[in-house]
Design a protein that fits this description.
Blueprint (H helix, E strand, L loop, with lengths): L5 H6 L6 H18 L15 H4 L3 E6 L14 H16 L3 E4 L8 H10 L3 H18 L15 H15 L1 E4 L4 E4 H10 L16 H9 L4 E11 L4 E3 L18 E10 L5 H6 L8 H11 L1 E11 L2 E7 L10 E4 L5 H5 L10 H4 L5 H13 L3 H5 L8 E8 L6 E6 L11 E4 L5 H10 L35 E2 L2 E2 L5 H15 L2 E7 L4 E2 L12 E3 L5 E3 L37 H4 E4 L8 E5 L13 H6 L10 H8 L12 E4 L6 H15 L12 E3 L3 E7 L5 E2 L5 E3 L2 E4 L2 E8 L11 H7 L2 H10 L7 E2 L6 H14 L16 H19 L3 H17 L6 H11 L4 H10 L16 H4 L4 E7 L2 E8 L5 H10 L1 H7 L4 E7 L3 E6 L1
Parallel strand pairs: 1-2, 1-22, 10-12, 22-23, 24-29, 30-33
Antiparallel strand pairs: 3-4, 5-6, 5-7, 7-17, 8-9, 8-16, 10-13, 11-12, 14-15, 18-19, 18-21, 20-21, 24-25, 24-28, 26-27, 27-28, 30-31, 32-33
Helix pairs in contact: 2-28, 5-6, 22-23, 23-24, 24-26, 25-26, 25-27, 27-28
Amino acid sequence: MSETNPAAAEAAPYRYTAALAAEIEARWQDFWDAEGTYAAPNPKGDLAGDPELAARPKKFIMDMFPYPSGAGLHVGHPLGYIATDVYARFQRMTGHNVLHTLGFDAFGLPAEQYAVQTGTHPRVSTEANIENMTAQLRRLGLGHDKRRSFATIDPDYYKWTQWIFLQIFNSWYDQDARRARPIAELVEQFASGERPVPGTDRAWNDLSEAERAEVLGEYRLAYASDAPVNWCPGLGTVLANEEVTAEGRSERGNFPVFKAKLRQWNMRITAYADRLLDDLDALDWPEAIKLQQRNWIGRSEGARVDFPIDGENITVFTTRPDTLFGATYMVLAPEHPLVEKFTPAAWPEGTREAWTGGHATPSEAVAAYRAQAASKSDVERQAEAKDKTGVFTGAYAVNPVNGERVPVFIADYVLMGYGTGAIMAVPAHDSRDFAFARAFDLPIVCVVEPTDGRGTDPAAWDDAFASYDAKVVNSTGDGVTLDGLGVTEAKARITEWLEREGHGEGTVNFRLRDWLFSRQRYWGEPFPIVYDEDGVAHALPESMLPLELPEVEDYSPRTFDPDDADTQPETPLSRNEDWVNVTLDLGDGRGPRRFRRETNTMPNWAGSCWYELRYLDPNNSEQLVDPEIEQYWMGPREGMPHGGVDLYVGGAEHAVLHLLYARFWSKVLYDLGHISSAEPFHKLFNQGMIQAYVYRDSRGIAVPAAEVEERDGAYWYQGEKVSRLLGKMGKSLKNAVTPDEICAEYGADTLRLYEMAMGPLDVSRPWDTRAVVGQFRLLQRLWRNVVDETTGEPTVVDVEPDEDTLRALHKAVDGVRQDLEGLRFNTAIAKVTELNNHLTKANGPIARSVAEALVLLAAPLAPHVAEELWRKLGHTDSVVHQDFPVADPAYVVDETVTCVVQVKGKVKARLEVSPGISEDELEKVALADEKVVAALNGAGIRKVIVRAPKLVNIVPA
C-alpha cells in the first residue's frame, strides 16, 4: 500500500506519495501535450518541424495495432506499449529523431456483435472504446506523437485501404520480371499479340468484355473466384484457414465449419511465395517467427507428373518422383473437379467391397463421401487419424513409368488447396499412404531399399520406410532405370525422363494458399468494386473513394443452424437496395450505367496491412504517402536492405497472419513504385505475456481473484475451496487488474517500473500486485536523494563526487545504456536501483552532477518523476530531449579484481590484482602467494591453468 498516514504526511509534506505522483503525472502529461514534446518532424510537408531535429538519424518505433475493446485495458495490455516508450525515450536522448505513435485497428467482429445485441451502431461503441482506451494510455505517460494517430474506421484512412485494394486488383505478377506490373501492360501484350491469349485461338479484340474479364481474372493479384471456402453457418460468414481451429470449428464462437463452394475475393499472395521466403533472411526477426513463416509458405521442390485417364491427365505434384515405380493407386481431394468427370455409372468388374463404402454405384459413394468430408476443416483432414477413410471413384489412371493401371480414390486427407489436389500414392514409403493401402487392401511395392534390416517385402512391414539416405530398387521401365541410384540422383534422372517423354516436369510447389479476402460482415471496409449487368467487375475511379459504409437496419449477417452445411451467406449490406443498385458514370467514356455493388466487406486484417505508412504522412489526401517522407522514415539503408520500421513490438500470435499479409502488401506497393521499402518491419520483437492466477470453483467457473483467501496452503472463496492455475488475465476470468487501479494506488511511474522489472521482456511472467510496492519504494528513495521531504527543495550540493561514487555512477551509466539499447529493461532498472542504493547509503547530500545523471538514467523508465526532479534541479527545459549520460571508461574498469586460485580444484587463495594483468604475471603472483605455497607443501607442479584476471588453477604433480 502507498503511504496514507496523516501524521507522516504532516511531518514530510513533500514525500513522494501516490497523491503527489498523481499531481506530478497529470501536470507533466498536460505539459507534454501543450508543448508537442513528442512531435517528430517530417523532412517536409504539414508535419515538418525543427530542421535540426529532422537532420538527426531517424528511428521509427511501432507497437502492433491495438483493438479498442469495450472492456478497456488490464495491466497485461500495456507491457509492450511501455517497453516501446522506454526505448523511444532512450533513442531521443541518444540523438535520434523518433517517430512513435499509436492508432487503433477498429473494424472487427466484437463491435458488430455488440451492435447486433444492442442496436448501437458499431461506430458509436467503437469510438467510445477508443476514447476510454486513449485516456487509459495517456495516464501511462506514453510519449506518442498524437498528430499521427488515427483509427482504421476513419473514412480518410480506409479511402487508402480501398485505393491499395484497387492497385492490387489492377496488377498482375510478371514471373519473368519477378514483380507486379499494371494490368494495363498485360492487356497491351494480349492486344498486340506479343502474348497469346490463354485457352483460345481467338484474338484479344474478338473476345467479349466478359471473356476478357475472365482471362484477366486468372492474372490479377486480387480476383474473385468460385472456390472451396470455410463456411460457418453459425456465424453466417466465410473464414480464412487461419481462423479455423484444429477441431474444425470457428476460432470465434466455436461453431462447426464446413467446406462450401462460393464466389469470394482472394489475394494472389502465392505469386510472392519465393520473395516472401527469400527476403526473410535480411530481416532482424526472432528465428522462431521466421521458421513459422517458412513452414506456412512451405516451399518444396519436386516434379509435376501426368497420369493419363480417358484421353486426359490427372496431374500430381510430388517431392519424391524417384518413387514413381511404387505408385500403386491415386487419391484425389473429394472436391477435385475431375471426380465427377471420370466417375462411371457402375462399379468396374472385380471392384472390392471395401472400396465402395457400401454404396451401389460410384456416384452414390462419391456423393456420400463428399458430404462427409465437407464437415471437416483442412486441419482436421490433415490430422493423423487412426482409421483412414475414402472411396473408389470407379476410374483407373495409368502410371506413366510402367504403364500399369492404378485405381483412383477420393480421400479427405488430400486437400484441393495444396499442390494439384491429387496425389500419387506410394504406400511403401509414405505412412499415410501405407495406412490407407492396408485399410483398403491395395498393392504395396518397395522401391527404396530399407536400411534398417526389415527387408524388401512390405507384407512383413508394420509401417512405411521413408528415408532419403537409401538406394532405389525395383524401378526399371521403358527407357529409364533408377535401380542402384541414391535418392537425389534418382530424382534428377526420372525428372529428366518425364520432361523428355512429355509426362511432366521439374517444378516447385508451395503450401501457401491465396488469401481469402471476403467477409459476410457489415463492420468492415466496403470493396470499391461494382458489377455491370453481365457480372463483370469494375473498379471505382479514385474520385469516388472513399466508398463509405451505408446505414442498415440489421447489422448481423444471416446466421443459420450451426450444423446446416447446405446454406449460403446473406450479407448485411445486401439489404440496403438503394446502396447496392446504383447508376454510375465510371469515367470510362460509356456514360452512366446500372451497376450492383459488392456486398461483402474486407477482412479485419486489411487495415493493419499498411498502417505504418499512414503514420508517416497521416493527413495526405492526395497520395498514399509522400515518397520523400516514406524514404526518410522507411527507406533502405545500411543494415536494412529492404527498409522498414526500425523496431516493431507485438505478440508472437501474429507470426503468420498479420505479418505475412503486411509483407505481401508492401511488396506489391514497392513493385508498383509507390514506396521504397519492400518490407514493412525490419526488426521484430515479441514481448511475453503478463499472466495471472485463475481461481475456479467446483463447477469450473472462475471466481473473483481479488476475493480469494489463502489458508493452510489452499485457496478459498466464500467458504468454498477453489483451484488455482496460472493463465491469461482477462475480464471473463475475473482476475483482471486495471492500470487505473495501480496508477491510483502508486502512480504511473511505479506501474511502468514494475512491468519493466518483472523479467526479460520476451518472457511471460505472473502478475503480483503485492510486489508493485517495491518499485514505489525505489522512486521514494530516488526522490529523497534529490529532494528534502520537509521543504520540497533540492538537497544536492555543488561538489566533486568521491571516487567510489564516480565508479558506481559510471558503471551504472555504462550498464544502463547497454541494457536499454538491448531492450533489457529489467536489468537496467536493477542497475539504477544499485546506484540509488549506493547514494542512499552515503547518508548525506549528493553531488549535483551525480543527481542529474541519476535523473537522466531514470528518465526513459519513469518520465514523470524525472521531469519533476529535472525541474527542481534548476533546469527549465524538458528532460525528454536531454543527452543520455556517457560513461567514462576510466571509471567503468575496476582498479582491482578478485582472482581465485585453486589447488586440486579447491579454492586456496583470493588475490586482488589489476584487471589488465598478463597471464604470465598472474601465474607468478599466484605461485608466490603464501597460502598457495602452504597448500602445495613442496609438491611439484604438473600444470597451471590461467584465465586472467579471475582464475588460476594449479594441478600438483
